[in-house]
Each structure stands twice: as C-alpha cells, then as structure tokens.
Sequence to fold (301 residues):
Amino acid sequence: MARVNVVGAGVVGLTCAIRLLESGHRVDVLARDLPLETTSSVAAAIWYPYRALPQDRVTAWSGASYAEFVGLAGDRETGVRMVTGTEVFTTRKAEPWWRAAVPSLDRETSLPPGFVDGWTFTTPVVEMPLYLRWLAERVEELGGTITRMNLQALPTGGDLVVNCAGLGARHLASDKSVVPVRGQVVVVEQRGIERWAIDDDGPTYVVPRSRDVVIGGTSDEGDWSRTPSPGTAREILARAARIMPEIEGAKVLRHKVGLRPVRPAVRVERVGRVVHCYGHGGAGVTMSWGCADEVADLVNA
Fold:
C-alpha cells in the first residue's frame, strides 16, 4: 500500500482517487478548487470524445468509461442517465473515429431543416453537481480525504503523486503545451426535453438534465476569460434553436464559462514518483474511468 497525493479535485482527480482507494492505497486529494468550483462543474457532461487525442487511446479510455457509466446509471444518486439523441451535419459524414467505444450507432434520416446527415445513439449524460458530490462522498467513504490547498509545486510528501491538475499543469508540470479552450454555456429551464442534440458547428449542443437544460457552446482556444458574454449567449441560443426548436423562448436560469485543458495529446504516464493524468480537453468526463484505470495500473506497477 502506498500513500498517494492526488492533485486536483475535478472529475479526473476524484475518479483516480477512487480507483486508487479501491486498490488499497491511502489517498489524499489536494486542490486549489473544491469539486463544485472546478471546470468539471460547468460541463454539460454528455459522453462524447471532444478536443482530445490520440484517437486510439481516447477511444479505449472512452469505451471503458462508457461501460462504467452504464452501471452507474442504475443508481439515481450518481446523477448519471443513459439518454438518446442525435448529432446532425450539413454535409455527408463517415462514422466517427470513436465508433468502437459505443455499442450501437445508427444513421438518422429524420433531420432538422438544413441538415443532410446525422447519427443517433444512446450515451451517458452526467448531471455534474450531483455526480461531483457523489464522487467526493465515495472518496471519503473509502477512507480518502479532500483538502483545499493552493500548491506552488507538486507535493513532496507521501510515496507517489498523481497530477490531475488540468490547466494547473502549465505551472505544476512546467507544461506550456496545455492551453485553455474556453467554453460558454447557457442553462435554461427544463420544459419536457428528453433527447440531446449536437451540431459540430460552433460547437452547438443541447443536453437535458432533470431540472434544467445545458446549451452550448464555444471553443475559443487561448482565451482565459471566465466572464460570460451576453452576445455569445444570444448566438448560442440561436444556433441551438436550429437543431432543437423546442428550446426557443425557454427561460434562462444562468450563464457559465469553463476552461477546457487542451494538449496535443492527453498525458497519462509515470515519471519517477509522479503519475501525470491531464490534458483531457473537452472529454474529461468521457475518459475519466478509463484514464483512472490506467493511473491505478501505473501506481501499482
């Protein structure tokens, strides 16, 4: 059994902590931001590989996570549901590169005006406020701790460190290849919407949750601003109404911005006493369990 410090309390850090605790290690999660303050809390959190490479590893991690989420969807306290929806396109498309990660995917012929192709599949939708609380409670149930700590460097105490710092890896791992990709969303009232919809242009997505609907978004690389733009919000809502007219006129509840930690390739590797796990782009939730399994293997090696 090792004493492991996990840096970062977003979805990736908490999931890694759970897998390490399940392996019998002593785990302390250290983070500047507590779970509900992280970028993870902003995510629409539909399982969908986005802004993450390399394709083969991302597909494997995403497939493992999909299977885990199917099991979690049986427990309402997790906030995980399996939801069917459609991604639409204005041009004909080949099947997605991550096709092997989902059990089924069908061509869609009933499309909104202006779209000529699409595919329909069932995928996990994760209600992040509920899910992050569930993950944190699971860490504590297994004997782990979560502590707010503004680190200036990776901790030296303990036997091993797992670096899940996201954008913080620019400083903590001296890795300037990690850059922010700003994502703005609008949260509106739930008015009976049961399906999700995605248009790669924008990107545009409508993701229903139990009490609200998350509508996005933007993909602004290098933009560090966390302040929502009213003009961008109007544009997001207009784009979303093209793929799901039912949301037009829905009451806006709040605006949010998250900074995705994008890197040329997701980094999951061990260097001495440090295991790095960051750079998940827009797919932290999507890859979380698969990456956590690999982190546990690296720690146990």
User: Anything to note?
Assistant: The chain has one domain: 3-300. The radius of gyration is 19 Å.
